[in-house]
Amino acid sequence: MSDDDTELEARLEAQDSFEPPESFVEQANVSDPGIYEQFDENWPECWDGAADLLDWETEYDQTFDGSNPPFFEWFTGGELNASANCVDRHLEDRGDEVAIEWVGEPTDEANRTYTYEQLHREVNEAAAALREMGVGEDDVVTMYMPMIPELAIAMLACARIGAPHSVVFAGFSADALATRMNAADSEYLLTCDGYYRRGDPLDHLTKANEGLDGVEHDTETLVVNRLPEADSFDHDLDDSQTLWADAVYAQKGAEVEPVARDAEDMLFLMYTSGTTGQPKGVKHTTGGYLSWAAWTSHAVLDIKPEDTYFCSADIGWITGHSYIVYGPLALGTTTMMYEGTPDYPERDRLWEIVEEYEATQLYTAPTAIRAFMKWGTEYPDAHDLSSLRLLGTVGEPINPRAWKWYYKHIGDESCPVVDTWWQTETGGMMVTTLPGVKEMKPGSAGPALPGVDAEILDTTGEKVDAGRAGYLTIQKPWPGMLRTLYQNDERFVNEYWREYSDTDSDDWRDWTYFPEDGAKIDEDGYITVLGRVDDVLNVSGHRLGTMEIESAIVGVDGVAEAAVVGGDHEMKGEAVYAYVITEDGYDETEALRDAIVAGVEDAIGPIARPEQVIFTPELPKTRSGKIMRRLLEDIANGEELGDTSTLRNPDVVASIQEQVGE
Ligand code: ATP
Ligand code: MG
Fold first, then answer.
1. 66-100 pLDDT, tens digit each
2. Distance from C-alpha of 396 to C-alpha of 513, rounded to nearest angstrom
3. How far apart are CA 452 and CA 476, in angstroms?
4. How confident is the model at residue 12 (pLDDT cuts 50, 70, 90)?
5. Rounded to whole angstroms, how far apart are CA atoms 294 and 302?
6. Distance separating alpha carbons of residues 56 and 567, to the nearest angstrom
7. pLDDT band at residue 51, thresholds of 50, 70 and 90?
8. Is there an atom of ligand 1 within 6 Å of 646 CB?
9. 471 CA → ligand 1 middle, Å
């Protein structure tokens, strides 16, 4: 490192807040600091502005209907169609502009570009093919597809005919597919033959067929042919299965009138990742959800039609629904879709894509950023990333060190970084800085968005003081919120409302949404999410957030990633167990162990001192990239391990067990 670099690192490390870059503010979609006050004074009508980002077939009568809590409704009486909003209405001005830019994993394969005109054609033909297959309004269509353009096309085709989709992440097991199709009584499946992962073709249809064996009712399937002849698998389709290409070709030139959907009609179902317990069928609606996806894309991601926006998530997660498909397309921009992993064929694949397509925004996850950090700066440094204007993260808290790395090495200190807290259930972003308005504080997601009323409460429902750990709650409804858990209103009430609401009251003000995350707030209203309620430790009577301790550990030089869990302890109740991955080029030494312990004591206090620091080459992660702390806890306590079937890397568990046993 040169002296200049060292100086810069030292300056960044010492800095704990960052003003939005002037050049960004000047052009930002939202730059008026008065927006917070205006929204507060004008709630709920402030959300008319979100609805105004859409085209309505029939104007709504009422912005918000709170008469039957917690079954809240938005934009009641209004009618609209999501596919008309994401495709048709852009044809006149932007028909020749690119809607979807798809990049496959193999570098020798041509990218696929869809202009709005072409997307319109594909969506119409797919919608006609779905109808031909028998899909009617309100029939749930399951999609079990990787990141191929047909997935986005199929979602929009469903939206066009008013059939809710339920996308099941392609990396999930056959069992997971069967459970979800059974739970939703879904008779239709859209899937594909296979796809590429790290250079190898994967057989997907065999897995899909295993899933179908577990479905209790009759089904019809369309199969997209993704793999070229040379890499294809031997599959025989049965009578209930048709090739997508054949079904769509038969509808060449078809026009399907978008069905006018009531604002409150279901747009889709999404089963949450299931990091904990039984999957929940989160129901999202057409008017409220789409307004929320569009408004947050506009205000937080700063999306403009002329942008090339890149979100590296998978459409199998809510992030891909809201911020690859619905939000960006509702705003008429170019949205990128990348099929593969960021390290194939080399660790600079994302940077290569950003450079080649001149991406203007990048929205990714902290786990990816920590991997980029571990790999080293030579990969981004080899590319021109100057097209980027804004960076975002989602999925878990981002520790200050990773935040600053992202800010400096990817954003060149000229892009705001938005750390966005939200959930499958919230439909879109809830807590984050408005990038053209608010200063950024690494380690904190930021204040609640304008019009979103977040409070941090203790177990008795009292507000906690600034700086103290408590529970994140949302005091007022918002348009993008889930409406219920599919066919399970009771679980919906129990899961999200019972904790902090007066459930006998029919006044919506007595109802509080509980996301089940721990958090704290500072004097400026900035919220730091500490992790799931289940992940908060109780050490000698002190409540400690696992995320906070992890952040301190990852702040130590030489540490790439860390996971903290509580192990049973006779004296303390719980003791801190830290699992640590070192950065490339660092050894697993006693000195590093001491530095980690000291780092935690410095940042939080002796109370948080790790009882054990366990070095490991990998952490057990779910397929969405989240650490499975539950397993690490079982290991720490020497208990029988629970279900490991949703793990991406099940092999790592045995090697960690060995080390803890030592
Ligand atoms: P499940 O609910 O099925 O167990 P999940 O909660 O992991 O799975 P998601 O809805 O994808 O499924 O994730 C939402 C959760 O992710 C939040 O409740 C929070 O715990 C965490 N999270 C997301 N974004 C952030 C963020 N920016 N900062 C901190 N935590 C975040
Ligand atoms: Mg959750």
1. 999 999 999 999 999 999 999 999 999 999 999 99
2. 20
3. 7
4. confident
5. 11
6. 54
7. very high
8. no
9. 14
Residue 644 reports pLDDT greater than 80: no
Secondary element (H or E) of residue 530: strand 527-532
Is the domain covering 116-259 a CATH 3.40.50.980 domain? yes
Query: Across all residues in the chain, what is the average pLDDT?
Result: 94
Buried b (16+ CB within 10 A) or exposed e, 415-453: bbbbbbbbbbbbbbbbbbbbbbbbebbbbbbbbbbbbbb
Characterise 531 by phi-psi region: left (phi > 0), alpha (psi -120 to 50), beta (else): left
- Look up the CATH number of domain 536-661: 3.30.300.30
Ligand 2: centre distance to CA 485 (Å): 13
Cis peptide before 70 (omega within 30 of 0): yes
- How many angstroms separate the alpha carbon of residue 631 from the centre of ligand 2? 17
275 lines ligand 1 (CB under 6 A): yes
pLDDT one-digit tens code per residue, 352-378? 999 999 999 999 999 899 999 999 999
Ligand nearest to the CA of 394: 1
Any ligand 1 atom below 6 A from CB of 536: no
Distance CA 447, CA 427 (A): 18
Report whether 471 contacts 518 (CB < 8 A).
yes
The number of the ligand 1 atom at minimal distance from the alpha carbon of 276 is 4
Q: So where are the chain's domains?
A: 116-259, 536-661
Closest CA to 198 of 381, 339, 406: 339
* Residue 430 confidence (pLDDT): 98
Assign 388 a pLDDT band (cuts: 50, 70, 90): very high
CA distance 397 to 614: 22
Amino acid identity for residue 263 in this structure? A
Ligand 1 contacts CB of residue 629 (under 6 A): no
Ligand 2 centroid distance, CA of 424 (Å): 7
CA atoms of 142 and 212, how far apart (whole Å)? 11
Q: What's the pLDDT tens digit per position in 117-155?
A: 999 999 999 999 999 999 999 999 999 999 999 999 999
Residue 112 in contact with residue 347, Cβ under 8 Å?
A: no
Ligand nearest to the CA of 275: 1
CA–centroid distance, 424 to ligand 1, in Å, is 8
Type of residue at 109: E
DSSP secondary structure letters along 48-74? HHHHTTS--SB--SEEEE-SSTTS-EE
- Ligand with smallest separation from the Cα of 444: 1
Alpha helices, H only, 78-115: 82-86, 91-94
pTM of the predicted model, to two decimals? 0.90
